[in-house]
Amino acid sequence: MSNKYVYLFSEGNAEMRNLLGGKGANLAEMTGLGLPVPQGFTVTTEACTRYYEDGKVIADEIVDQIYEALAKTEEINGKKFGDLENPFLVSVRSGARVSMPGMMDTILNLGLNDVAVKGLAKLTQNERFAYDSYRRFIQMFSDVVMEIDKRKFEDILDEVKASVGAKVDTDLSADDLKVVVEKYKALYLKEMGVEFPQDPKVQLLESVKAVFRSWDNPRANVYRRMNDIPGDWGTAVNVQAMVFGNMGDDSGTGVAFTRNPATGENKLYGEYLFNAQGEDVVAGIRTPNPIADLHKTMPAVYDQFAEIANTLEKHYRDMQDMEFTIERGKLYMLQTRNGKRTAAAALKIAVDLVNEGMLTKEEAVMKVEPKQLDSLLHPQFNADALKKAEVIARGLPASPGAACGKVYFTAEEAVEAAKDGSKVVLVRLETSPEDIEGMYASQGILTARGGMTSHAAVVARGMGTCCVAGCGDIRINEEAKTFEANGKTYKEGDYISIDGSTGNVYGEAVETIDAAVTGDFATLMGWADDIRTLSVRTNADTPRDARQAVKFGAEGIGLCRTEHMFFDEDRIPAMREMIVAKTEEQRRAALNKLLPMQKADFKGIYEAMEGRPVTIRFLDPPLHEFLPHNDEDIAALAKEMGLTFDELKGTVESLHEFNPMLGHRGCRLSVTYPEIAEMQTRAVIEAAIEVKAEKGYDILPEIMIPLVGEVKELKYVKAVVVETAQKVMDEKGVKIDYKVGTMIEIPRAALTADEIATEAEFFSFGTNDLTQMTFGFSRDDAGNFLDDYYAKKIFESDPFARVDQVGVGKLMKMAVKLGRETRPGMKMGICGEHGGDPSTVVFCHNIGLNYVSCSPFRVPIARLAAAQAVVMGK
Ligand code: PEP
Ligand code: MG
Fold this sequence. Notes:
This protein is of the alpha/beta class. Helix content is 46%, strand content 16%. Strands 12-22-21-14-15-16-17-13 form an eight-stranded mixed sheet. The chain has an eight-stranded parallel β-barrel with strand order 24-25-26-27-28-29-30-31, surrounded by seven helices. The chain has a five-stranded antiparallel sheet with strand order 1-2-5-3-4, sandwiched between helices. Helix 12 packs across helix 19 and helix 20 runs parallel beside helix 22 (584-609). The two termini are 35 Å apart. The chain binds phosphoenolpyruvate and magnesium ion.
C-alpha cells in the first residue's frame, strides 16, 4: 500500500505532531474537540522530505492524494473551487513540528480567479471586497510563491490611487480595484512569461511547493541551527477553508494567549482588529485593540472565545497562543499552540500550573527551555543609575530585561558591529523575518511600530532578548541612520538603553547589575535539583566568578585554568622570567616569585567555594603566549630583566612554534620543566592546608593534568605531584586528601582510557580540544569556514558549541567505558564549552558522566537541562 501523505483535519490528532507539524496536529485536535475550526487538510512532513528526496518534485501519488483531500474538503464545506455561485477559497500555511519563524508567509484567498471573484462578490454582496481580496491574492501569490518583488505591485497600487485621487487603500472603489487586478495580472505575465494561473489546483500545488522550498531558505536554516532543529524534519502544509475577518464591522481577527506571555499572569491576553484579515494583527501596521475590549463590543463572542481558551488550556495543560477570526459575528479558531513566552513567564506559568494541580513537578521542569533562562541570568539595570537616567521615549514592554548598547539601524550592521565586540541595540521601524540574525546579535531591539504580538515582540521573547516595540515616540530616518526623540537626534553608534519590562528608552548608557535566582525561578530550580542526578560545576578562575557560580547553584569547580592567573600585569614579569630562564636554578627562582601569588589565588577560590570540590588544571598553553612579540616590547623587557635585546629576542624566537596548538603545551611543559608542576602542586596543597586551618573548610583539591595522550606522560607528571604534595604535607605536619586526574582531550587518551585510568583518579572531558583534534579543525580558525558548512548542509550546528555526538561522542562513550573497566565507579565530568549546552548536558547524563562544568552564567541552564535529561529518560 502506498504511504498516506495527506490527512483531513478530522483524521489527525495532537499526537501526530511529527507527521502533521504542530499547527496541523493542533487543528486536527481542535476538530476532534468539536471546536469551530474551518475545515481543511494537512500535507505531511514526510511529503516534504520526499519532495527533497525526489529532487524537488511532488510525486504523482502525493498530488493525487492532495486532490482527493481537496475534493473531500470542498464537500465538507459545501463549496467548490472556481465556482461562480459558491467559490471555495483556502489559506495555505507552513507548519513544522515546532513553530519556526522565517518559514513561508501565509497565503490567503487561494482559489480566487476571474470567475471565483465574481462568485465571491455575489455571495458577499460586496464587489469591492471581492476584488480587493483578489488583488491581495495575486500580490501574495506572486511575492511569496513566485518571488516577484512585491514593491512592483505596491507601485501599481500607488499609481492607481494617484490616478483616482485616493489617499488610502480603502478609498478605492470596486472598479478601481478591477483596474488594479488587470494591471497586476499584466505584471505577472511580464515577469513570469505566462498568465497568472487561473486553475486553483495549479495555484495550490505551486503554493505547496513554495512551502516545501521555504523549509530550506537561509532564514529557516539559521533559525534551525540556533535552535537545534534537524534539517530532515521537514515541514507540513496546512490547507484550510478561508473565513473572512474583513467582511465589515461585525468581522475581525485576532491573536490571544490564555496567560500573559511576558509576565505569566493568569489572565486572557491578546489583541484583535475589526474588519481585518490574517496577518494585519501581527504585521504591526495597524495598532490593534486589547482583547478585553471585545467583551464590550461583542460580549457573546468574547464569552465563547474565553470558554474555548479555557478548554484548550486545560486540554493541553499549557498556556495557549490562539488565532481566531470572527466572520459576520461567528467565531472560528484558526490555530492553537503552546505559546512562546519570556523566561520569567515560563517560570511563573510552570510553577502556577503545578500549584493549580495541572502539572507534576517533573512535567513542570520540561516546560521551561533551559537556554531561555539566560535572559534572567544577565544583568538588569542598576536601580540608582536608572533613576538618574532620562526617559527619552516610551514604547510597549514587549520582552523583559535590560539592554544597553550602540544603536544600529539594519540587521546586517548590527551583526557586523557585534562581531567587532560591540554591544548593540537594533532600532527598526518594525522587524521582519529577514532581521533574525541581527536580532540574535543584539542586546536589545527597539521598534517604532507594532504591538505586543508584532514580529519583533514575538521573536524577541522567544530568544529571551529585551525588546521595546511600538515606540511611536521615536522618529526613525532609516536613510540618514538616525532617530529623533525628545527633541534630540541619535545617530548610528550612539549609546542608548532600553528596558523591556517597562518600555522605557534612555538616551544614554545605563549601568547594569547582576541577576539573582529568586521567586519562581528558585522554586523551579529547586524542583530541578531534586530530580537531576548529574552534578553541575563551574569553570572559574577567580574568586569573583566562583562566588557568582555558587549563587547560581554550582556544586564545585570543574575547571580552574591556572594560566589565566599569570596574565595579570603584576605577574607577567615573573612569568616571563621563568620562561626565559636559562638554567633550572633561574627557573626555580622565578617560580618562587610566582608561588605566593598562585597560592593566594587558590586560597581565594577555596574560600569562595566553602569546601566544595575544586579541580585545578595545571599550566596548559604554549609558553610563548606570555612573551612580548614586537621589538619595542622585547627591548623594554630585556631592560627590565637585565638582558641584552639580542639575548631576549633569541629566546623569543627559539620559542616560536609553527603550530602552537599542537606544540609545547599542556603536560608537555611539565615533562620538560617538572619544577612548574612542583610549584603548582605546592601552591595547591599549601593553600588547602591554610584555608582548612583558617576557615575550617575541608578542601579536596583535584589536580588535573592537561593534554595527556599517553599514560606514561601522566605517570611522570603525577609522580612529581605526589612527591611534592607529600613533601609539603610532611613539612606542615598536616595530611589532606587530594586527587590527581587528567583531561580527556586528545583522541589517543580516549582510545587508551583503560591505560590512562591506571594513573588517573578522575577524567574530565576537554571537549574543546577533543573536538579540535577529532575533526582536525583549529578551534581558533574554524569560524572562518563553518558558515560554508552550514550553508552547504555539511554541518547543522557548530561542533564547538554542541558536542558532535556521533564522532566526538563516540570517543567519549568509549573513554567512559574503558576508564571504568580499569577503575570502577571512576568520577568523570566534562569541562569544555559544551558543558553548558543543554543538548550536550542531556548527552552527558546519558553516557553516565558524574558532572558537567560550565561558565557561571550557564550553571542554572545546566541544572535544568540535567533534570530534563532524567525526565526524558523515563
Ligand atoms: C578543553 O580543551 O575542552 C578545555 C576545557 O581546555 P581549554 O579550553 O583550556 O583548552
Ligand atoms: Mg584543552
